[in-house]
Amino acid sequence: MKAELVKDVMTPGVVAVRPDASLVEAALLMRTQNIGDVVVADGQDVIGVLTDRDITIRAVADGTDPMTVSARTVCTQDPVTVAPDDRVATAVALMREHAVRRLPVVENGLPVGIVTLGDVAEAEDPASALADISRAEPDAG
Q1: What is the rounded CA–CA span in Å between residue 71 and residue 37?
Q2: Residues of the signal sequence (predicted)?
Q3: Into which CATH architecture does domain 6-135 fall?
Q4: SS3 label, residue 24
Q5: Which residues lie across from 116 on neighbouring strands?
């Protein structure tokens, strides 16, 4: 049986940083949590989503000092969000429409999880290549 609701496929819990956190703080958090993105939140409000790619492309590649640049400066601001009770098809449509791979899941204004393209692939077709890649442990480096 296919998962129909976002809450059935999302990764619960949110790893978040303050908008004024440095990119180094965010990157260290990503490394310790073994994730590629963090939610940028100011109290209860989701300000943006910061990915490892954002840090690389929008900051490091430009030669900026990641100790002095804030998460707010580099993150994708005002991200598209979904609710836990939204349909998975809605999340997929939003990912396509906005060309994003992850959506914060927000309930009553609070971030409660994240749903990624990999989460959806794993739920829809566990035997797919994308599902296999999503389940794989990242390179230890």
Answers
A1: 11
A2: none
A3: Roll (3.10)
A4: helix
A5: 102
83, 6 contact by CB (below 8 A): yes
Provide the 10 A C-beta neighbour count for residue 4. 13
> Whole-angstrom Cα distance, residue 31 to residue 15?
12
What gap in Å lies between CA 20 and CA 35, rounded to an integer? 20
Query: Which pTM does this prediction carry?
Result: 0.82
Q: Is 37 helix (H, G, I), strand (E, B) or coil?
A: strand
Sign of CA dihedral 52, 57, 59, 60: positive
Nearest-CA neighbor of 51 among 63, 41, 36, 65? 36
| pLDDT tens-digit readout, 49-92 | 999 999 999 999 999 999 999 999 999 999 999 999 999 999 99
Alpha-carbon span 102 to 115, nearest angstrom: 6
Closest CA to 5 of 85, 70, 103: 85
What's the first-to-final CA gap in the chain, in angstroms?
37
